[in-house]
Write a structure and sequence with these properties.
Elements (H helix, E strand, L loop, with lengths): L9 H12 L3 H14 L4 E7 L5 E6 L6 H6 L27 H7 L2 E7 L6 E7 L2 E8 L4 E7 L6 H5 L4 H18 L4 E6 L2 E6 L4 H9 L7 E7 L4 E7 L11 E5 L2 E3 L2 H10 L12 E6 L5 E2 L10 E2 L2 H19 L41 H7 L30 H7 L9 E3 L3 E6 L2 E6 H19 L4 E11 L2 H16 L3 E4 L4 E8 L8 H18 L4 H13 L9 H12 L14 E5 H7 L3
Parallel strand pairs: 1-7, 11-13
Antiparallel strand pairs: 1-2, 2-6, 3-4, 3-6, 4-5, 7-8, 9-10, 10-13, 11-12, 14-15, 16-17, 17-18, 18-22, 19-21, 20-21
Helix pairs in contact: 1-4, 2-6, 6-13, 8-9, 12-15, 12-16, 14-15
């Protein structure tokens, strides 16, 4: 019997590794930018086309590579970061395995242009599916430019699993934001389909946060700083009143590397205990500096998970530091700039002997009852005209008082639903309606959500949502990720009844909102809340896009507990509920209607 075990060819091994390292275009963006950071670049440009499917290009001004290194960097496990196994526990660079470039070259067309500062000529290398198809010297600027074209061209199954261009672009923006936050002193730009989405000059961390997420975040940030023998912690957290329903604005960086750690996230949330609204997540951008020998980052292909030597101590430090910052800065606002001293120079200090205390004077001969003096010192107002009309109110008959019990004849004439058992409201939360066998109890919020959800689904199907024109259109400026999301959802949002159009960079003009929205919020608040609810549903539920959008808008537009309803409103709500396809189930699958029979009531009273 012949041997059955054999070594895989390098091309096949690289494709297998690519499945772990490069899962989508955003993964390639992460690896390329990390290499540029390790090369010492202070200017990095990212150019993307068609959500990264046709082109991902990273241009940096780093140290560059020699001709030999330019060819060798595409070999598997070729790296300049480590030399021996012990180096794994002293890693401060972003990459170290030497798998990223080999994996990317195995599944794409790659063009590398690089030149060191001391070299006169650079090197240009072309690779297609791990095969070098060209290498030649070329006059190039100092630094490195890597262009990745036609990602997954030789793995059709993997390419077919990629999402739409806007979805893949949102993942790229997420990775870009994490790296831009981790290194605020580096200049970053991002161009997508010839449009500049980000232009981030080298700046402080707070300025970088504001430039990425919007100018409104300047007043939301609270600084955190703690130095211990175990870790050094610094960064910013958000004020509790600005917490959101999604986790998208939570960032932990360990030695400059973005990590996902539920244990440390719990430490931050625990510090917000009792001051955070329910089902809300605070903003935080926190940096942990720790001895590399006390952590292990080689536990996950994407290097987003880390093992710590003393997790409990780190947990306690983070929790106490966040609590202290909330107590110190949450009430008193802070300013980044120095105090303005221009006004202080206008005040000339006086010596103490020239300062006179204030004195109080009074007239001892003043008599308020002396009419002569009073008339001489002040004028008495004349008697107003038509004073006798003030007494006309006493001649009117008092209106009849409304009694709690009315006669049957009067009630049948005044009630619009005479002959029907009218519903009534219980604690402004539930509606009680009598039926032949007993009564039903309806959750008014869940019922209204079900009604609006089916109505919005019908609008999306027919593309005919009723709209209410705004008297004064409002401009809404979003961050790049939300701007991409709105662009992706724009046809469906307009079908729901929103009148919205693009207006400059990251800005939309809202000229109308769905007619069913009666929350009293501004157009900007409605759109931002819709985005938050949609992202929350997107993370929790695997549903079609239109259904998630209708679900989000229905939850936002539904009447809230504590809303008083008139008899006509309750009757209309019941009629519309029973006209739905699924009146008994809420959007979360819980019951909307509870039925109580007369027999159940008799058993309760032990009859």
């Amino acid at each position: 019997m012949s041997d059955v075990i054999q070594l895989l060819p390098d091309a096949v091994a690289n494709q297998i590794a690519a499945g772990e390292v490069v899962q989508r275009p955003a993964s390639a963006v992460k690896e390329l930018i990390e290499n540029a950071i390790d090369a010492g670049a202070d200017k990095i440009r990212l150019i993307v086309k068609e959500g990264g499917k046709s082109l991902i290009q990273v241009i940096d001004n780093g140290c560059g590579m020699s001709m030999t290194d330019a060819r060798l960097c595409f070999e598997r496990h070729a790296t300049s970061k480590i030399r021996k196994a012990e180096d794994l526990f002293a890693i401060r660079s972003m990459g170290f395995r030497g798998e990223a470039m080999a994996s990317i070259a195995a599944i794409a067309h790659v063009e590398l242009k690089t030149r060191r500062v001391e070299d006169e000529l650079g090197t240009r290398v072309e690779i297609e599916g791990s095969n070098v198809v060209g290498q030649e010297p070329e006059a190039l600027p100092a630094g490195t430019s890597i262009a990745v074209k036609n990602l997954f061209y030789n793995i059709p199954a993997r390419r077919n699993f990629l999402k739409s261009n806007p979805v893949e672009m949102r993942h790229i923006v997420d990775e870009f934001q994490r790296l831009a936050l981790a290194y605020p002193r580096i200049f970053f730009t991002l161009h997508s389909d010839n449009n500049e989405l980000f232009h981030l000059p080298g700046e402080s961390l707070k300025q970088r946060i504001v430039h990425i997420f919007g100018s409104g975040y300047n007043q939301r940030l609270v600084p955190v700083e703690e130095e211990t023998t175990i870790i050094n912690l610094k960064g910013f957290i958000g004020k509790p009143e600005y917490a959101k329903k999604t986790r998208g604005e939570q960032f932990f960086f360990v030695n400059g590397r973005f990590v996902k750690d539920p244990y440390l996230n719990h430490a931050v949330v625990k510090a917000y205990e009792d001051i955070l609204p329910s089902e809300s997540f605070p903003l935080y951008v926190l940096f942990i500096e720790i001895d590399p020998a006390k952590i292990d980052i080689n536990v996950h292909p994407t290097k987003t998970e880390i093992k710590y030597e003393d997790e409990r101590a780190i947990y306690a430090i983070i929790q106490s530091a966040v609590k202290r910052s909330l107590g110190r800065y949450n009430i008193t606002p802070t300013l980044d700039f120095n105090q303005e001293t221009g006004f202080s120079q206008m005040i000339s200090p006086k010596p103490l002997e020239e300062i006179t205390p204030p004195s109080v004077t009074f007239n001892p001969d003043f008599n308020p009852f002396d009419s002569g003096k009073a008339s001489g010192s002040r004028q008495v107002s004349p008697i107003p005209q038509n004073w006798d009309t003030l007494y006309q109110i006493s001649q009117k008959e008092a209106p009849a008082q409304l009694g709690l019990h009315r006669n049957d004849a009067d009630s049948s004439a005044e009630q619009p639903h005479a002959g029907k058992k009218q519903p009534f409201q219980l604690h402004n939360r539930y509606i009680v309606s009598q039926i032949h066998s007993g009564f039903i109890l309806i959750d008014q919020q869940a019922a209204h959500e079900r009604i609006l959800f089916e109505q919005f689904c019908q609008h999306l199907e027919n593309r005919q949502g009723a709209s209410q024109q705004s008297l004064f259109p409002q401009t809404v400026t979003l961050n790049a990720a939300d701007f991409q999301l709105i662009n992706d959802l724009l046809p469906d949002i307009q079908a729901l009844g929103f009148q919205i159009r693009e207006f400059g960079k990251h800005t939309f003009v809202v000229e109308g909102i769905p007619a069913d929205l009666t929350s009293g919020m501004s157009e900007r608040q409605v759109l931002e809340q819709l985005l938050e609810d949609y992202k929350n549903n997107q993370a929790a539920l695997k549903l079609p896009r239109r259904e998630k959008l209708a679900r989000s808008l229905a939850r936002h537009a539904a009447i809230k507990p504590g809303t008083a309803l008139s008899t006509d409103d309750m009757a209309e709500l019941i009629d519309r509920l029973f006209a739905c396809e699924m009146p008994n189930a809420s959007l979360s699958g819980k019951p909307v209607i509870l039925t109580f029979t007369l027999q159940e009531l008799s058993e309760r009273f032990e009859r």
